[in-house]
Amino acid sequence: MKMIQMEGVSKDYQVGGAAVHALSEVGLAIGAGESVALLGPSGSGKSTLMHLIGCLDTPSRGRYRFEGREVGRLDVNALAALRCATFGFVFQRFHLMPRATAWENVAMPMRFAGVAPAERLRRAAALLERVGLADRAEHRPSELSGGQQQRVAIARALANQPRVILADEPTGNLDSVSGAEVVALLGELHGEGRTIVTVTHDEAIAARAQRVIRLLDGRVVADDSG
Amino acid sequence: MPAAFLPPDWQRALRAQRGRAVSTLLGLVWGTFGIVAMLAFGTGLREKLERESDALGRGIVIAFPQRTSISYRGYPAGRPVPLRLEDVRALPAQVPGLEAASPEFIRWESVAVGDRLLRTNVSGVDPSFGLLRSMPPQPGGRFLNRPDLDGARRVAFLGERICQALFDTQDAVGRAFTLNGAPFLVVGVQRPKKQMGDYGGLDDMRVTIPASSFQQVFGDRLLEDFVFRARDGADTAQVISAVYAALGPRAGFDPRDRQALNIWDTTEGQKIRTYAFLAMDLLLGSAGAFTLLVGAIGLGNLMFVLVQQRRREIGIQMAVGARPSWILREYLAQALVLVLAGGALGFLLAWGVTEAVAASPLVESVGRPRVSLPIGALTVLLLAGAGTAAGYFPARRAARLDPVEALAS
Question: Looking at the domain A4-225, which fold is it?
């Protein structure tokens, strides 16, 4: 059985009284260590799919099993624990805590995993070093460039050594140089054996992944490897 | 310790709401100050009044013989009640609930030292009078005792003001003065006391001598009054009835004739005082509690604003693995830290004010305000309750946010 296994997964939202079918009958399987791009235009349901994979949300219908566990049956605390230990998120809008410094942002998930304060500081420093921002540790997000913010976000995603990195349009708000750096960094993480799922509408970025899953109107329309 | 649950950037988030945070804090400070200070002043005033009314005698009853209102054993109603020394001295044997009783003669007489002549109240009493009427001696002196009474000694216990007036000093033990021409020796001077309530003058101007000596000098046979106290745990009203029953047949009045004695039961006043102060504590306490309530509402509002303002950040925290219970704890902890800060400041302020008043001449009129342990405990409980109540609902709202929606905001 694959690490991520979805069968007939749908997600509906209520928007102003009308039901919106964000995802319909999606079935897919992603194995550990794969590098996957979810490709589609805006509104195709790719972000919703990423939220479901990352256990930020649960399916309206269908089954999602992560490492054999039925995610739909988990309560909010178990979902949080699963996210904390397993997934690292990288968002288009970075989503850093605006009032916290770079190292505090990187250390935040460690608090939720119960890491001791001294160890948090040490690990956060090492992660910032790794993304090339050791000298920006005390800076707030507003004092960093977009590329730097996204690298802090990647360091934060790595805080609890997750097996899966989920990146939602990670280069969407970056210039091409910074974007290339981020893509390279994600490639490195895949090289270390992590599973990488990248959400994008950009064919060029999707092409860097081993496998591209194309979505349109909430359905998987193509799934091609290599 | 709630600090462990606080996010690292909570102070910076609070700073963004500086105006709200400061006014909330002021509300909490003022509410705490209100409760603590008002109750502290209430305590001080109560203690002052109790001390001053105890100066007449704690829990005593003073009985003045009057005229009968019911005919008794052939005597018509309206006859004056003749009360003698032996009637009062027989009471302890007849009334089991009685702790002690003392007869009292009173006269307005002249006392003199050399050519200094003064007129004042002179009481002739038994030795138990000193304890009943709270007349402690200054060091080096004593109250009247049994041998003084038995030997009808010419000795006197002086109030501190009459002593000063006669001798220009408080150190008068062993000195002599004349009472109605008869020489008397001072054996004790009363410790200064503030007295609320009196009959026949204040004790600081009283000359007290043995009842036996009083009779020898003035020839009196009928008492002005007698003073007694019920034992601890005995019901004063029942003891009073027993006193009527015991004295009636001896002094010639019907034991049911309540007019025969004019009774001043000081325990009635104590009861009234107890209830009055309970009412005052409730009033002042609830005034303070309402102020605190307003502070708590302000705190609840501040917390709601903080949660609203940090929706996206809460979503981020949840995305990276914060459990809802952690978010709840985090916001509850912030509310409690604010309450702690406001409460501590308010407490300090109240403590400072009470100390300042305690050190000022105001003590004379309002008593010495005191922050007692129960007041402190009550305030801490109220603050903790207010903080939890004000913090809980905003915190729960934060914890229930849907992470996907919160991230989108």
Answer: Rossmann fold (3.40.50)
Round the average pLDDT of chain A to a whole number and report it.
Answer: 93
B315: which chain A residues are within 8 Å (Cβ-Cβ)?
95
Chain B residues whose CB is inside 8 A of the A161 CB are none
- How confident is the model over B240-283, as pLDDT tens digits? 999 999 999 999 999 999 999 999 999 988 888 888 888 888 88
- Could you tell me which chain A residue has the CA closest to the CA of B15? A99
By the CB < 8 Å criterion, does B321 face chain A?
yes
Give the integer Cα–Cα distance in Å for A93 and B403: 15
Residue with tokens 């007694």: B228
Q: Does the beta carbon of A94 lie under 8 angstroms from any beta carbon of chain B?
A: no
Q: Give the per-residue pLDDT at B3.
A: 56
Virtual torsion, Cα A223, A209, A163, A123, nearest 10 deg: -160
The reply to whether B64 falls in a domain is: no
User: What is the span of the domain harbouring residue B349?
Assistant: 2-53+271-408
Residues B145, B191, single domain; the answer is yes
Give the residue-averaged pLDDT of B208-221.
96
Same domain, B245 and B275: no
Alpha-carbon distance B258 to B231, whole Å? 22
Helix axes A117-130, A102-112, angle to 10 degrees: 130
Q: What are the chain B neighbours of A84 within 8 Å (beta carbons)?
A: 320-322
Query: Encoding tokens for residue B170?
Result: 């408080």
Do residue A81 and residue B321 have CB atoms under 8 angstroms apart?
A: yes
A80 closest CB neighbour out of B9, B318, B404:
B318
The residue ranges of every structural domain in chain A are: 4-225
Domain boundary among B251, B279, B296: B251
Domain count, chain B: 2
Which ipTM did the prediction report? 0.92
In chain B, which residues have their Cβ closer than 8 Å to the Cβ of A159? 320
Q: For residue B318, tell me if it sits in a domain.
A: yes
B131 lies in a domain?
yes
| C-alpha to C-alpha distance for B176 and B34, rounded to whole angstroms | 55
Mean pLDDT (whole number) for B204-219: 96
Residue B69 within a domain = no
Other CB atoms within a 10 A radius of the CB of residue B195 amount to 18
Q: Residue B386 pLDDT more than 90? A: no
Query: Is the same domain home to B132 and B194?
Result: yes
Same domain, B104 and B234: yes
Same domain, B88 and B232: yes
Q: B320 vs A112: CB contact, 8 Å cut-off?
A: yes
What element of type H or E holds A179? helix A176-191
CA–CA min distance A205, chain B (Å)? 24
User: Is B285 found in the same domain as B241?
Assistant: no
